[in-house]
Here is the input.
Amino acid sequence: MPEAHAGPRTARRGGGSRAARGESPLAGRFALFAECLLTGVWIAVASLPLVTYPAAFAAGSRHLGRQLAHERGGLREFAADFRSALRGGWLVGLAGWAVLAVVLVDVRAVRAGLPGGALAGAVGVLALIAAVVAGLRAAASWQPGDSWRSLLAEAGRRTVLDPAGSFLIVGGLAVVVCSAWFSAPLALPVLGAVAAAAVAVEERYRHR
Here is the structure.
């Protein structure tokens, strides 16, 4: 994920760059990985009200972006971004649950053996995956004051125009599912890796 931001790292943090402090690239990458896991826990906690997950991912993505730029930022900044993203973001979260409900109805139609149920179920699942990817890409590009409607519209276009990046995010989601299958608590920190993947994909798309 850090490779998406390759280039001269001249930004300073805590009074000096990593190079100035004599840190190895491996140590920097491990620190970033640890930050991703911590951010995943923050995202999970912020998503507990169920409709707040878009704002939680937006705040988490901003936090990881600051880490990649070697800027100061911690839980206080995450909380401030979360409150800002929540304006309008909760409606996006509510809409996401509505889409999930529709897909579940399609799946039940498939299990009931209704005519056309298999096709409707497949379309519904694909639409749900595309909606999740677009939502994550929108959250990764969120900035304070942005309109969620505009972000989602632009992210939807990028989801289609950049299939490689979208598949990378799907891969991150698959890791979360596998982690939850092995042990549910593992899925919480891995959410940070999904946010980091979305940030890297968006950065990659901007520099194409």
Observations:
- Confidence is low (pLDDT under 50) at residues 1-21.
- The chain is about 75% helix and 0% strand.
- The CA atoms of residues 63 and 74 lie 7 Å apart.
